[in-house]
Amino acid sequence: MLLKQTVDGIGELDRNAMAQARERMDNLIKPPGSLGQLEQIAVKLAGITGNPRPRIGKRSVIVMAGDHGVVEEGVSAAPQDVTWQMLPAFVNGVAGIGVLARHAGASITVVDIGVAADVDIPGVQKRRVRSGTGNIANGPAMTREDAVAALETGIDVALAEIERGATLLALGDMGIGNTTPSSAILAALGGYSATEVTGRGTMINDEVLERKRRAVDRALEVNRPDPADGLDVLSKVGGLEIAGLAGVVLACASRRVPVLVDGFITGAAALIAAAIAPGAKQFMLASHLSGEPGHRLMLELLDLEPLLYMGMRLGEGTGAALAMHIVEAACRVLDEMVTFQEAGVMDLEEEKLLKND
Description:
Distance between the termini: 66 Å
Helix content: 40-55%
Number of strands: 6
Strand order of the largest sheet: 3-2-1-4-5-6
Strand content: 5-15%
Mean pLDDT: 95
Number of helices: 16
Oligomer: single chain
Number of domains: 2
CATH class of the largest domain: Alpha Beta
CATH superfamily of the largest domain: Nicotinate-nucleotide-dimethylbenzimidazole phosphoribosyltransferase (CobT), large domain
């Protein structure tokens, strides 16, 4: 089974490559640690790739689209048809992710993994597992078999991008109502209440926010997802695009390719991937801290530090695309700066030794 093969293929970070990267970074013509997170990113990328001087080449954003039966509970300000109506804008590069991915030099792969409407949009991969999830406030989102199929779809899409030369992947999402299952996933895996994890999503008022919280509470009560079983949580309170993106994370981890997590929805996917394969966390980078309140809790569970604090909450992979510049900058610093020895400059330690003599 593709899922098992992928999980079994996830290893550890290359500690030797990290040690070499750290030694070089500490000897570049700057005070040690003076470039902050750039230094940490570069060393982590060395561990992910096994290359002490990692480089970023082709980059890709994978946007998964799916619909959610829980919109029946009135948890969203937008109608469900907006999910499929947005897809041409993604493909044509005129949505937010199109602009920012183009700016980052990244390709976009758009996948219909669970859109409710039966649409055929040129440029969108039609990999639909089913037409939307069930209403999690009344029962499970999908069967366990559907969850596995969606995970494996994400794995397959990511592996294809990697085979085409992608060296950095980013997660993007589209699905009206998807902050509700994401909140339920966070509550289930983190042991939080609906109030702690449920935010406003897109433009909702107090009345709709209260409906969302009630829907999350009912989803947890009705389905009783097992926090020790990531696949159980996914199938009971998750989403198809969340499952597909979790598969992307697992594929990246198995192939030692860094993957940028975007905001709240992709954070839920990252949580599912980590619940299925805890080692997958090592291969993730958190692009930014979303304006959605539960996102900080997600990143704490994943032990990830966001690269950007921009107050963004659009989704689509926009924060991840923006962070691609930071990731490349980290690699360039490590590779293109010179050491004190290479530059013929005396470092601070040498200066101290000479003074002591």
